[in-house]
Amino acid sequence: MRRFYYVFLLLLVIALAAAGCSQPAAAPATSAPASDTQTAPAASSDSVKLPEEIVMFNWTDYIDPDLYGEFEEASGVRVIEDNYSSNEELLAKLQGGSAGYAVIVPSDYTVGIMIEEGLLAKLDHANIPNLSNLADRFTQVPYDPGSVYCVPYMWGTTGFGYDSTKVDPPASWSVFFEPDPNSDIYGRVTMLDDPRESFAAALAYLGYDINTTDEAQLNEAKDALIRAKAQLAGYDSDTYEDLVASGENLLAHGWNGDFLLAMEDNENIVYVTPKEGGVVFVDNLCIPASATPEQKLAGEMLINFLLEPEVAARNSEFIYYASPNKAAEAFLPEDFLNDTSIYPPAEVLDKLQYLEPVGEAESIYQRLWDEVKSAQ
Ligand code: N2P
Fold this sequence. Notes:
- The structure is a single chain.
- The chain is α/β, with parallel strands linked by helices.
- It has two domains: about 1-155 and about 280-335, D-Maltodextrin-Binding Protein, domain 2, CATH 3.40.190.10; about 155-280 and about 345-375, 3-Layer(aba) Sandwich (D-Maltodextrin-Binding Protein, domain 2), CATH 3.40.190.10.
- The protein has helices at about 1-20, 65-75, 85-95, 110-115, 175, 195-205, 215-230, 240-245, 255-260, 295-305, 310-320, 335, 345-350, 360-375, and strands at about 55-60, 80-85, 100-105, 150-165, 190, 230-235, 250-255, 270, 280-285, 350-355.
- The strands form two sheets. Strands 4, 5, 6, 7, 8, 9 and 10 form a seven-stranded mixed β-sheet that branches.
- α7 (about 215-230) packs parallel to α14.
- The model is unreliable at about 1-45 (pLDDT under 50).
- Pentane-1,5-diamine binds near residues 62, 258 and 283.
């Protein structure tokens, strides 16, 4: 009952907004059906107009672009996408006072940092009734229990992808950290342009905790990353999968869904979770504290739209990342749900770990990463 009430209200708001009226995002709780014991919270956005346009600040290739048009048709709000390449880049932008973003997509550990630094707005759940579509385990994530600030968007893993017709199947991070000048891959390899991800690869290779704050271990990881540089064509988080698909590169460190998407262009690509383990992540839809009330309302409507089961399913199928949306599963084909590169089996998941905020050691990571990047 409650859900239909919300959906009805949302449709009403959308219709009124499309007709050019300024209307509240949700009606006062007094109009809730008498039988509904879960009274809707009073809307905090009673006099908020929808903007014509909002900006979604997102990773590259991380949404089915058709969905923007569909949201615009339904809400009257046009969505412009701007991209970043790492959590650290996104964080630096917000810390530096960049504003104008309605929706951002930080990963788990970065959400924790952003909450602590007051960079995120609290979500008005009355505007996001589709929150109820999340699978239970994604409603109480440790970095934001109860989805106070963010809504889990997609989850995935970090490993590497290679062209199986040109590379002997590697299974270990050693393929990055023990470069061989005589191998075919030498000079045709990339690693993620991402301090925590690249350090996690080196730390996993060395057998250390990927969230270590031990300076000696971090220095060892830095040396490994500098040695790895000898065979790198570069650091890249945005086009690495396309460069493997086109044959320009043969091996890349990266995220599972990106390689699966690139398989549409080159079916010889194989994605691997290295035997030493690696990273599992949950990326989230959040609204920066700097958003205006208008941007925030439209952002919440976009988040709600992306949580529609059928929309979430289509989005996941398009970008090849696993959905935290339980209700979306009914709309996902069996072969997608059974794909172990998207939904890793328990024995693989067991080897993976979430990146966590490292507190003061963040500056050590940043300094050592700068040293890696500038090393000759
Ligand atoms: C998509 C990037 C996935 C985000 N291109 C990794 N957190």
